[in-house]
Amino acid sequence: MKLLVQLLIITTTTAANTPVVIIPGTAGNRLQGKLNKEAHSPHFYCEKTSDDWFDLWLSITQLLPGAIDCWCENISLIYDEAADTLRNWPGVETRVPCFGDVCGIEYLDTDITVSDSAYFADIIKAFEDSGYKRGVDLVSAPYDWRFAANSNNGNYINNTIALIEKMYSDNEDTPVMLLTHSMGGLWSAHILRSEVDEEWKAKYLKSYVPIAPAFGGSVNEFKVFATGQADDLPGISSSTLRDEQRTYESNYWLLPNAELWPEGEAVVTTAEGKTYNSHNLDQFFDDIGYGVGKKVTKRLEGIVSVEDVHMHDIHIFYGKDVDTDESYEYTKAGSWEEEGMKTKVGDGDGTVNIRSLEAGNGWGGVVEAVAMGGETHQGILKNKVLIEKLLELAKT
């Protein structure tokens, strides 16, 4: 009788869930700050000290007119030419919360649980409803998304590799599903190409699932650098954010990949007849009056690639048939402002161009590449068909 009970226990024991590690996209996780600045800059009402950590991203109240000027300084990076490094503004300390949990990617503004603030919330809930436990077999690897992989800020690459290995060992040596979104596709692809070998991938990874991957960057980055992008923030002009957005190393990483955009294709055209794309970036940065951009771009030369990641099981999901910026024409001589700028659109998910989204489709390990018509870059994370597919992949 005792033996029978033991056999029943063995045969009815549920196998461990496939652990899921999520790498979010740019601006896809919370970023916290702490202040100890010498002056109230750029305005007298800007706080110069803080007693505790606060959410620098995302906090909608900090993006209101007036307050946004303080925020822009606090979140900007400074390029140190002598050391060839990027660092925070003096007196600003930053950290990334919730590494190894999902509390940093669920809601970007913890006071707002709807709209784009609810970033991975739907996917997290679906996995929890199916038996997953956050911090146990459902975790994320958030990062300071202002930096690119070459900076490896906070030793992020090694920490993420260690997290995957921990999820494997903590869950009965069960290989992991690596799930990414947007620029998380660039980070994961870099790790899979350059930081781990074939034996490691075969042991620790069950599958690799990039969603809306920006493998080849986005044309929109040219507008970010030349004009700035306010993303419909009320009362905020694009030029207000331009200086801050230019400081992010990650925005350089997201420029259109020269392997996908041929030399003769004009991405930007001016009234004077000049044209620019990723093949003449030095000239572009000189002409928009931001020579620092040339130096930061050179730092990224070793990590810009769309070559195969050599993974054994890849499932790619992305949106298409959504108007996506394809090129820009500045019709006012000497002006980089939005007024007078004409935008030509093409296929994509509203943020990333189709050729970038599909840059991994021909890789040898791709099992399926699913284009979801009419789905946007952010909206795809709430798509019920996609969520069901993710659950299916994790269970099989």
Q: What would you say this structure looks like, in words?
A:
With 396 residues, this protein is of the alpha/beta class. The chain has a single domain (17-395), classed as 3-Layer(aba) Sandwich (Rossmann fold). It has 13 helices and 15 strands. It has helices at residues 2-12, 67-75, 121-129, 156-170, 183-194, 198-204, 220-226, 238-246, 249-253, 281-287, 292-299, 354-357, 384-395; strands at 20-23, 31-35, 54-57, 77-80, 85-88, 92-95, 138-140, 176-181, 205-211, 268-270, 275-276, 314-320, 324-330, 341-346, 366-373. Strands 7-1-8-9-12-15 form a six-stranded parallel sheet, with helices on both faces. The longest helix is centred in the middle third of the chain and has 15 residues, at 156-170.
The CATH homologous superfamily:
Alpha/Beta hydrolase fold, catalytic domain
Overall pLDDT: 95
Q: Which structural class do the helices and strands define?
A: alpha/beta
CATH topology: Rossmann fold
CATH architecture: 3-Layer(aba) Sandwich
Shape: globular
How do the strands and helices of this protein lay out in sequence?
Elements: H1 2-12, E1 20-23, E2 31-35, E3 54-57, H2 67-75, E4 77-80, E5 85-88, E6 92-95, H3 121-129, E7 138-140, H4 156-170, E8 176-181, H5 183-194, H6 198-204, E9 205-211, H7 220-226, H8 238-246, H9 249-253, E10 268-270, E11 275-276, H10 281-287, H11 292-299, E12 314-320, E13 324-330, E14 341-346, H12 354-357, E15 366-373, H13 384-395
Parallel strand pairs: 1-7, 1-8, 8-9, 9-12, 10-13, 12-15
Antiparallel strand pairs: 2-3, 2-6, 4-5, 10-11, 13-14
Helix pairs in contact: 2-8, 10-11
